[in-house]
Amino acid sequence: MKIPSFIVKTSGIVCLLLGGMNLAAAESPSLVISESDITALRQASGGLLEQSMQDNKRLADAALTEGIVVPWPKDAGGGYTHEQHKRNYKAMYAAALQFQLSGESRYSKYVTDMLNAYAKMYPTLGLHPEKKEQTPGKLFWQSLNEAVWLVYTIQAYDMVADALTDEQKSHIQNNLLFPVADYLSKGQPQTFDKIHNHGTWAVAAVGMVGYATGREDYVAQALKGLDLSGESGFYKQLDKLFSPDGYYTEGPYYQRYALMPFVWFAKAIQTNDPDKAIFAYRDGILLKAIYTVIELSYNGLFLPINDAIKDKGIKTEELVQALAIAYDITSDRSLSDIARQQERVSLSAGGVALSKIIASNSVAPYPYESKIYRDGASGKQGALALMRSGNNETGTLVVSKNTSQGMGHGHYDRLSWQLYDNGNEVVTDYGAARYLNVEAKYGGHYLQENDTWAKQSVAHNTLVVDQKSQFNADLKEANKKPAEQVDFVSGELADISIGRINTAYEGVNFTRVQALIKPESVEPFVIDVVSIQSDAVHQYDLPLHFNGQIIDHNLSDYQSFNTWKPMGEDNGYQHMLLRGQGNSASSKNRLTWLLGDRFYSYTYGHYSDSDDSAKTLFFQLGANDPNHNLRRDQGAIRRLTASNVVMYSVIEPHGEYNGTAEYVTNAYSRLKSLDYKVTQSGAELTVNMGETGTFTLVLAGGDKSSGPTEAKVVKEKN
Fold this sequence. Notes:
Layout: E1 15-17, E2 20-22, H1 35-43, H2 47-66, H3 80-102, H4 105-121, H5 143-160, H6 166-184, H7 189-192, H8 197-213, H9 216-224, H10 234-240, H11 252-272, H12 281-295, E3 297-298, E4 301-302, H13 317-330, H14 335-342, H15 349-359, E5 371-374, E6 383-389, E7 396-402, E8 416-421, E9 424-427, H16 448-454, E10 464-465, H17 475-480, E11 484-490, E12 494-505, E13 508-517, E14 525-534, E15 538-545, E16 549-553, E17 556-566, E18 576-583, E19 589-595, E20 598-608, E21 615-621, E22 634-642, E23 645-654, E24 656-658, E25 663-665, E26 673-678, E27 682-688, E28 694-700, E29 710-716
Antiparallel strand pairs: 1-2, 3-4, 5-6, 6-7, 7-8, 8-9, 10-15, 11-12, 12-13, 13-14, 14-23, 15-22, 16-19, 17-18, 18-21, 19-20, 20-23, 21-22, 24-25, 26-27, 27-28, 28-29
């Protein structure tokens, strides 16, 4: 029998086992960690590598001290048994790697004993008692966690396999590895064949079992789907889940999470079948994905898009592992800048190389740039536009979200935006309503407020029509209708993004033009123009969620309410407490707040067929929140009733507050005037910034029903 090409290193004989034709497994280790990695690690020392190796040894030694603890599955996410099984797969991985590095049999014995304990228990398990209805697991409440467990566990098995007898291998494979792989594949085809991060973890787990144990059928199913048609499986996921720019449709938080199975399985494919050139597949899509997730961050944290938990950042384990793999392929020295910030490296050949660069003070800065990341498999479902000035730790970043829905983890927030400056999130996005693994908060699940608040349009910095969420918060409809990235221009004076959507609200079209203006001598500032067209009169709300302490405003007839009441009954408004309101003039309303040591002024106005009802409403979260699940975030809503309207604004950072030295500089806005006018070719918004200069955003193209399609910024000296 001829051995197929995808098995590179083989030993022993070909054998036929239950479940399909099998090949003898490759020499150990043969997955993500290979013999060349172990050789590099044994020969290296010092720097971040030494620290990372010591961390791994401490984890392995602590596991050996604790002994084998394999509890009967009982708890949902965050509970004791759930967390213990998570600790077990990480402990097995650490101990197996320590065995490879040291050759000490006590580490391989620990892994073998743990695997035997699971092999004894797993065949007796039914569905988890806290099972999720659609994707139940056995060890865990959902099969996603089971797939993660197997991805780690199969690598641990692979790294100790040469220390096992044939009888031990057979027992562990037939009573544990194969049953888990079968359950994750043919036992749950709705998940295994799904184009989704759950499916990614499942195919990676099953495929890696295939490579480690010589199961050709598992490898084939993982690559091409259960029916081997290629309509699902790893290749199809690479085709569908990433845009041509490497943007993952669920956003950077889930891109980070999905990155691990993608790059780990790809590395296993490369190790066992280099002829597949998996890292070159689809124009190097996996390498693009690694770079993209790095770039979708600010000051070390990922941009909180869709169901994102806001404290996840570039130090996450998934990116540590991906970074080393990327460097091993590209030798891109700028990746060492990210490794330096991560303060640790992967225990692999790539990690060794990155550690050496950092230790020799040869780090090259990572080149963050203003750019767009197209969304959708073909790149035609809108885009995420990033406009930058300065470095990624303290500079200015504008994020214009003109993307698709992002599947079930997506939010109803087409054409929303965020602003980062001076190391802080200034114009904010709520992210997800969830306390991950905090059992006291609904078992660590997504809270009900994730649906009633975080996903709703008013929770974001985007247009809300008639106090209803975009697409009436209908996921099926929202998935069909992405935003459009009309244009993007990056230049020395300004970066400009134009986004548009005509389907979020029936009969309402709106376009958003945002520009990051970059004067030479002072802080950058943002121009924002929202053009709305409709044949009918509507109530338009434009929220601004901001971080900081309000200093003052210039609204007329302002009322502050001693009794705060909810602003509505649904669509997120039921959670917003109205604190006060004032009348908005047609031009040059101003709100100033302080965040950290810098002031921010929001100056705004509107041009419409009716401006009698224009108001600004100040709100704070906390209504209808009996369990105190929501943060007490704040914001302001610009509200007016009209059919056609242009809502424009400028946000400028300025001045300094120093509480230690007790001084304040430039606490007042530099903006002298803000004028909008319609021209023969479109419109112009002129911003007079005093000594800094006068800047005019020139809008053109389109028509009265579609909004502008072109924009440029012109500067004049005052």
